[in-house]
Write a structure and sequence with these properties.
single chain; alpha/beta; Glucose Oxidase, domain 1; TIM Barrel; 16 strands
């Protein structure tokens, strides 16, 4: 039966394919007394064999697509799988206590995991993570429960999930994953941001996708209107085939602007840059006519792995992006971990309010060895392009000065080692904390640029968690309070002869763009897939009229008033 779900249009486009449920199953184990322990040992051996075949296939795929270093994680898992020190005690327990294989496996594995985690040794703690992953795989085979692995998908599908972590999304292969839909999330959740950078349609916050959709159902994801159709009628499929063709034709029109500068109708130039997560995203930036990288999210180098990336590995990633952009500006954000982005191998304490906690620059100034390694990699790579470094989550001038001091110390170390470093690196901050926006005139005297991170600035200003659907109505990018903060930052930068950009999702928002243009924003950084559409919009607007519009909306009372006024003005301007 055909069913329609509605949610939030998180990534534009239309996708049609069968459903792939990406849901972590419950692996519940009961203790059962058995009469034939040898049968349980044979079941265990069978589950180990299946796990070995799976891991070998995953390792081969990882080696081919991600390189030897990522594949090495699965070498470690295969070693655990063949370790008699683990399997021996499990079998002994089955035979001595006459218990089922699942119980013996879980009890023995938990004992080893606890023992390794309590050791004051990083290597041993990593082994605990390996044992947890491997025994979970064996257990799933014993229980006959399938654990989904998105990296092994080899046919066209639409992912169905309650939510997707950034590392889950990073594993998706756009060749086969045509779109996704989740029960939770908003336009600024990391899964939505990643979907836009990968240019795959997505609808989030549907609340009922997991409960309503089964593996193999035929799904249409409408990332333009926030709709998900389950087993649609032939008529609906036909409508969407037409809609898909129309959208592709519109994209072809926008593509004509790929090598054009970004100019307003009255000839004023601004810069349209892209937000990226990995060097693989470069192709999308260049294909969409990006005039720079306004935000390189370096945390993705640290995620989906069991250990910190080495200096050399980071250097190669930064160098690849700088060289690939051929002298165009590349703004690299230093490590921004915390909030909803966790690194299991750092073993950070659980926090009541992680978004307001130990994250980003706060973590880096504390964990100095991690920060210095990243700064060394960045400075070594700086000679290969036009590098700008940006510190995230800066709340005080002291934090900026400390980070800058550490950067200078690392520069001196490298120079002493005879390593070349560029002399033209601009140093800026993300403005995402209201106190920093209010003090922008003070910061502007010491930084080279500002980049406004509206995803966090909005949630902090409105005191509303952007991941919480119950307060999602308070995520208001056009609220005059937000617009006034943006104006303070842009004005403060210009007064000191500095530039101001924006790398939050608001920069690619068609209601926000006319206002930001009127406020004098210099650089708009967005998902690569939004660049050509935004360039087209800007070409239809006059700077002078948008300045008048910006003055008008700053005096308004509500988000809704602003939204309606801008929509009317843009329509009038296009005529």
């Amino acid at each position: 039966m055909s069913t329609l779900l509605t949610g939030i249009a998180a990534s534009a486009g239309i996708a049609m394919a069968k459903a792939y449920r990406f849901i972590e199953p419950e692996l519940t184990v009961e203790k059962i007394k058995v009469d034939q322990p040898e049968t349980e040992v044979a079941r265990l051996d069978g589950a180990v064999e299946k796990s070995q075949s799976e891991l070998e296939a995953i390792r081969e795929k990882a080696h081919k697509e991600l390189g030897q270093e990522k594949a090495a994680i699965f070498d470690a898992h295969l070693l655990v799988l063949q370790d008699p020190e683990l399997l021996g005690p499990i079998k002994d327990r089955i035979q001595s206590e006459n218990v089922n294989a699942e119980f013996a496996l879980k009890e023995t594995a938990d004992m080893f995991i606890t023992m390794f985690e309590q050791m004051d040794n990083e290597y041993m703690k990593e082994r605990a993570a390996d044992i947890r992953d491997v025994t979970k795989r064996i257990l799933s085979h014993l229980l006959g429960i399938h654990i989904p692995n998105p990296s092994l998908i080899a046919e066209e599908v639409i992912i169905i999930a309650e939510d997707l972590t950034p590392s889950d999304t990073a594993q998706l292969n756009p060749e086969f994953v045509k779109g996704f839909t989740t029960d939770v999330g908003g336009r600024t959740s990391h899964s939505a941001i990643m979907a836009r950078s990968m240019e795959i349609p997505a609808v989030v916050g549907t609340k009922e996708a997991v409960a309503s959709i089964q593996n193999g159902d035929f799904i249409i994801v409408d990332g333009l209107n926030g709709e998900v159709h389950i087993n649609p009628t032939p008529e609906v499929v036909k409508q969407y085939e037409f809609k898909h063709s129309a959208y592709e034709a519109q994209k072809a029109e926008w593509a004509k602007l790929v090598s054009q500068p970004t100019l307003t109708k009255d000839g004023q130039r601004v810069e349209l840059a892209a937000n990226i997560g990995t060097p693989k995203d470069l192709k999308g930036v260049l294909d969409n006519g990006g005039e720079g990288i306004g935000l390189y999210r370096t945390e993705f180098l640290y995620m989906g792995r069991n250990e910190l990336p080495s200096e050399e590995e980071q250097f190669e990633a930064y160098k690849a992006v700088l060289e690939g952009m051929k002298g165009k500006p590349v703004v690299v954000r230093t490590l921004d971990i915390g909030g909803d982005k966790e690194l299991p191998y750092l073993d950070l304490p659980k926090e009541m309010n992680p978004f307001l906690g130990y994250r980003a620059i706060r973590l880096c100034l504390d964990e100095q060895s991690i920060f210095r390694t990243q700064l060394r990699s960045l400075l070594r790579a700086s000679v290969y392009g036009n590098l700008k470094i940006m510190f995230p989550m800066i709340a005080t001038l002291t934090e900026f000065r400390e980070a800058k001091k550490m950067l200078e110390e690392v520069r001196q170390e490298l120079t002493a080692e005879g390593v070349s470093v560029s002399n033209n690196i601009e140093l800026g901050i993300m403005v995402e904390i209201p106190s920093t926006a209010v003090m922008a005139d003070v910061f502007a005297k010491e930084v080279d640029f500002f980049s406004i991170g509206t995803n966090d600035l909005i949630q902090y200003t409105m005191a509303a968690d952007r991941m919480n659907e119950r307060v999602s109505y308070l995520y208001q990018p056009y609220n005059p309070a937000i617009l006034r903060l943006v104006k303070m930052v842009v004005d403060a930068a210009h007064k000191e002869g500095k530039w101001a950009g924006m790398c939050g999702e608001m920069a690619g928002d068609e209601i926000a763009i006319p206002i930001l243009l009127g406020l004098g924003l210099d650089e708009f950084s967005m998902s690569a897939s939004s660049i050509l559409k935004s360039r087209s919009l800007i070409s239809k607007l006059t700077k002078q009229e948008m300045e008048s519009l910006a003055k008008e909306v700053l005096l308004m009372e509500t988000n809704e008033d602003v939204k309606q006024t801008v929509a009317n003005a843009v329509e009038k301007n296009k005529k």
